[in-house]
Amino acid sequence: MPSRPTALAFTCLAALCLAAPARADDSKEKGFWERETLLGEAGGLRPALAAKGVTVSLSLTGESWSGLSGGLRRGTRTGGMGLASVALDTEKAGLWQGGKLFISGVGTFGRFPGSALMGGIQSPSSNEATRGALLYEAWYDQSFADKKVSLRLGQIRADTEFLTSTYGESEDWGGAGMLFTNSGFGFPGIYGLALPSGGPAYPLATPGARLKLAPDDAWRIQLALFNGTPTRSAFGFRGGALAMAEVQYHRNQGENDKALPGAYRLGTWFHNQRFADLYSDTAGRSLAHPLSTGLPNRHAGNWGAYVMADQLLFQTGEERSQSIGASARLMAAPGDRNVADLQATFALTWKGAIPGRDDDTAGLGVTFLRMGSAARAIARDTQAFSGSFTPLRGNETVLEATYQIALAGWWQLQPSLQYVARPGAGIADPNRPGRTLRDAWVFGLRSTIAF
């Protein structure tokens, strides 16, 4: 595995010099740089499979991250991720209407930045995961009533369809396809901290069922039930159950609508396990009190709620190729049993910001994560009772500026610059006794190839 970013940086630099400045006209036969996948039609195999309802996808992402200042330490981490999937459309396969079978796998390698550089709660890389390969998703989806109802069963994830922004999402990869690289813009850190194993989100899918209702072009209702504790083992069952519900309203989504489109979501979730209180023990005392039983009080279940809004603000250019969109999320969870109780994200995306680069996308986003009331209170009590320095953790804020370059139809290069205020929401600095980590700067370069 590469330990230094030299090869990745050299390859990306060479690609910048060779890449065509823009996509060719889709009405013409697509050449090497304009095709959507590196292998193109693969000698006729890909269209032959597509005619039978089979779609095969493979992508490889390599990325390098450097801590520039602050955080835990300076240095560089290089890692990567591979995604592979096979989908079968039962109608095209000559079987029955409305069915889709989907199987995917994911593998990660190298070292990601995580807490090793920044010490933050939210990783600079949304691809960060334990190294290794595993079955990702394996589900069957059946639509009914002229696609107004669909039911999905199997090994599934929440971040493909729930809590997912309109800007940057893809049908099958969901949150993994977001423009912003910081994990706080994907499946949110507040719920990753709250749910066992981080919840049914990248890189762990889990057995579950999802029902989607689309009574008209504007409204969507999604209901899902997941195994409560995802594992790296395929179709593993343990740790209670997680239920999720989301209502969506889409406006101006039709081909003939001239007004700017938008999408708005309201959602909630409930986990039926018992969750430990982070402040009080079974006797009602602070867990930091010298006379505490040391046994936390336990709560029946855990829950959260969120609201989201995506709105296109501006659109112009040939075939509306340039556009500016805004995306906002507000998420909450009980502060007595969760490390974080509030998270907010806001982002602006600008597609075609540079003339002649209609497939490039620029983004500027901020994510704010606040520690829960119990986590803050126990830190104050620990300091009071022990008399030693204990960081009074408050919040972590990340600002990200990124630019996704379409080097080719099948190759994307993406630099990302991130500023982290109060990494880890103010954890202790091991190199400076009695102080918290300094604000940090991190720079990353991500290269993704679709085969």
Structure description:
- There is one protein chain.
- The longest helix is centred in the C-terminal third of the chain and has 14 residues, at 373-386.
- The chain is globular and about 70 Å long.
- Residues 1-28 and 168-177 have low confidence and may be disordered.
- It has one domain: Porin (Beta Barrel), CATH 2.40.160.
- It has 5 helices and 16 strands.
- It has a 16-stranded antiparallel β-barrel with strand order 1-2-3-4-5-6-7-8-9-10-11-12-13-14-15-16.
- The protein is mainly beta and 451 residues long.
- A hairpin with a 7-residue loop joins strand 11 (322-332) and strand 12 (340-351).
Question: Could you write a compact summary of the structure shown?
Answer:
Helices cover 10% and strands 45% of the residues. It is mostly beta strands and 451 residues long.
- Number of E strands: 16
Arrangement of strands in the largest sheet: 1-2-3-4-5-6-7-8-9-10-11-12-13-14-15-16
What are the segments in which pLDDT stays under 50 over at least 5 consecutive residues? 1-28, 168-177
Order of helices and strands: HHEEEHEEHEEEEEEEEHEEE
Q: What is the molecular shape?
A: globular
Coarse structural class: mainly beta
Q: Give the strand content.
A: over 45%
Give the helices and strands, then pairings.
Layout: H1 6-18, H2 45-51, E1 54-69, E2 75-89, E3 99-110, H3 114-117, E4 132-144, E5 149-156, H4 189-194, E6 206-213, E7 219-227, E8 241-251, E9 262-281, E10 296-316, E11 322-332, E12 340-351, E13 361-371, H5 373-386, E14 395-408, E15 411-421, E16 440-450
